[in-house]
Amino acid sequence: MRAVIYCRVSSQEQVANLSLPTQEKYCRKHKDTTDAVVVYTLTRFSRNSTDHYAIGAHLRGLGIALRSVTEPIDDSPAGRLMEGIRVAMSQFDNEQRAERTR
Hints:
With 102 residues, the chain is mainly α. The chain has five helices and three strands. It is globular and about 40 Å long.
């Protein structure tokens, strides 16, 4: 199996609530996927839909799948729909948070 695990936090609060070791632990358990970038959740991959789709298209062009260990995404029509909904909701949440902060 060849996979890349991508873990990240964006604030000190997240270090306590969604630690890097926790993300890595669950990603390492996701061993049924080969040739993939494995993330804990799509929000750890990107919170911007343009970036998400650009990077995702580049990965697919290289024959690399994007998989989430906590969300039902795959290359089926339903999986792509769920990915799109989750990506849109992540961007919406991020933009709302930024607006409230301003």
